[in-house]
Amino acid sequence: MQLLIDNLDGFGLRDYTTAVDGSRLPQIIRKLNLPCEFKVSLIADASDFLVPALGARVVLRISNGQILFTGYLMQSPAFEYLGWGEAGPAYRYDLVVISDEALLDEKRLPDRCPFVERSAGSALQLLTEDAIAGGFDTSGIQGLDPLAGYAPDPQKSWSQQAAEVAILARASYRTLNGAIMLTPVGAAAHELNETDSNFSAQGLRLQSVNALMNDVTIVGEVEPQPYVTDYFVGNGLTLKYYLSQAPFTKTSTTLFDEEYTTWPLEPTLWAMADPAGAISVNGGKLQIAGGTGVDGATTVQFVEKIELGGALVMQHGDAMFNAASNGVLGGLYPGAISLAGCLAGFGITPNGGQSNIQAVVSGVGVGSLMGTTSGHHYVLTTRVYAQEIYRRQQIFHSSAHPAGSGVGGAEVSADVRIILEVQDIDPDNPASEVAPATVLYDGVISGAPDFCTYATVNAVNLQCAIAFTRLVQAVDAEVRSAPPGQSYRTRLVGSLKEGAECSVTSSALEFYSQYVPAANELIEVHYRGRGQALARITNPASIAAQQRGIDDGLHGAVRRVKEPLPRTATDCENAALALLDDSTGAAWTGEYDTWSDFLPGRANDIFPGDALNVNVPSRGAMFVAAVHEVEIMVKDLNGENSFYRIKFANDAAMPLGFGFEAASLVSLPLVTELANTQVGQFYLPELTAAAITNVTSTTVSVDAGAPPPSGGGIEVRWSDAGWGPGNDRNLIGRFTTQTFTIPRLSAVQNCYLQQYDASVPPKYSRYTTALHVDYPL
After folding, report:
1. What domains appear along the chain, each with residue ranges and CATH number?
2. Which of the residues 43, 331, 562, 771 could staple to 345 if both were Cys, CB 3.0 to 4.6 A apart?
3. Cβ–Cβ under 8 Å, residues 343 and 445
4. What is the pLDDT of residues 356-373, one digit of tens each?
């Protein structure tokens, strides 16, 4: 066995094997999803002994070429005076070496937008390239599951973020010899069988711990709950209208604001294809001067996917056209970038020496053309409104649902309203900067894709300069109004200087003074209410099996999951299902001591994250565990004998697909208890399209937006409580038709809707639809 150290002095690896202190043998400590640590003590064995330098690279290998450890000396050796020898003072040098990710952890990772619709492996590869581009072999990083969303944090080290990504995928990462691996937990398996001639009975310590859970309550995030529509009527004077509920919002956040000050473009934001060299940055603007003439060949695209959920404001730039142009600006593409594949964007076509701007929807130009004027600036904005805030469920794992086959992860269907608007700014007319934007398109795309590629530029032959590009997660509220005798149009929400007409806060809709609603103008505000995401799931079979005497068999627990973050009640249900996969079985932990020549399954090495198939019937232990820690004590360098201590546990004792934190709720809200067999089958769809169609002084007409279920109906209540056939206290009525009329009792009135079916007991919608009227009598 050789201990090699490169002091980075230009002489390469030196052999320090003979300097190893025989009284303090080397030790390697490997822990699951943490940097590995190597401890060794050296004694100067010659007059030319060179004390290992800070930052030195350390390698421990055996004669057959197998490498046990590689890493870097990240702190200076500790000196211990041993006395005076023949060559002068003698010292012991204690070294603590950290595995290869020590180099990655020294780097400050760049600010990045959240990873969206990326695999866990892709996320880890990007983090690695951000730290040291090309410095590590990443071919051993497997893709694994897609991440619903992961936000890199430059305040965290590379290894901390690598561990978080690994938890999300129920995987293990490790670094060794300049390579990074990310593999599913259990990708390598070893047999610990008492019938094996190498098995050491005295080396095995097992403990069956009491971790049984068959009644699990999961606490998640604050989630979007009721589908709310508030109805108001203008009087020509009022600017402020109070909402019936506090809207759910992901918080208005600028995901990026690109001012084009650097070249090449920032790789953490943009990927560029420019075979003709048509794109550059000059004078603080993105300059496009031509293209290949081929659609989709010259592009600037955002490196992450765009999730079409909630409200988004995408400002594609203050564009100034220098000549006739052809291409698409600000395009959203479900697939490859092409005009035909453009879900929504701004088509630019030649118009003499100038250009036309037209909305492109589903690959086709729609609506009127806006001609450009020399010297004018055009601010192109896309607004996205979807009632579904999240378009993909989180994925949760267990031993029964490992990496690649987790629980959840389904895409969430939604109709999405798209608004394409242009603000024409004349530099010689300051008033144009706050003039209303021209809406080129305002419509709903049914069954819109969940995620799209965003390309700010698709240049066939563009001749323009773009001053900025900005993506904002806006307040998740949609405002529409209809003046007397006119159709509804979307009122633009945001700041006045960006051409918007109103703003939405946690309590009110407020119009800017120049956009005061006219007398008798009808106003609608669509948004989601908010509430705590919770789920309580039980395993009736386990409960029945545990019943003894006065014990009813319930073994309950409340868990707040930190990773993966349950953002909705559906996520909480899936998290509970994954926990129940393992928590109703026996929980085992253990340690196994053995020599390197007698490793389980005759393996030549073993790492955290490997599976250990324990088959020891004499101790009643037959289970599959995961290795959590490996301690290697090098007992004989010359004979290459090492002593291994392997620590392991199954998922019932230590769930590998979860990170937990202390629950922070003062008290748990009421939550419906479901059996594990009911998840995914208990609730009916919500009435997301329900609307008030007419209001009189005594009645309100409602269209539920969908026909009632066969044998069921639409239940309508004065408040969001008491749902079910056994409570009529706040009941307005149960209706078996899609349209119906309810009484109006006051100027301000709420009603709440859910549909129910003919089941016994009947099934209801998970979330309520809330309709709020604030009209004068």
Report:
1. 2-99 (2.30.300.10), 109-184 (3.55.50.10), 189-212+585-649 (2.40.30), 213-249+477-584+659-680 (no CATH), 251-474 (2.60.120.200), 691-774 (2.60.40)
2. 331
3. yes
4. 999 999 999 999 999 999
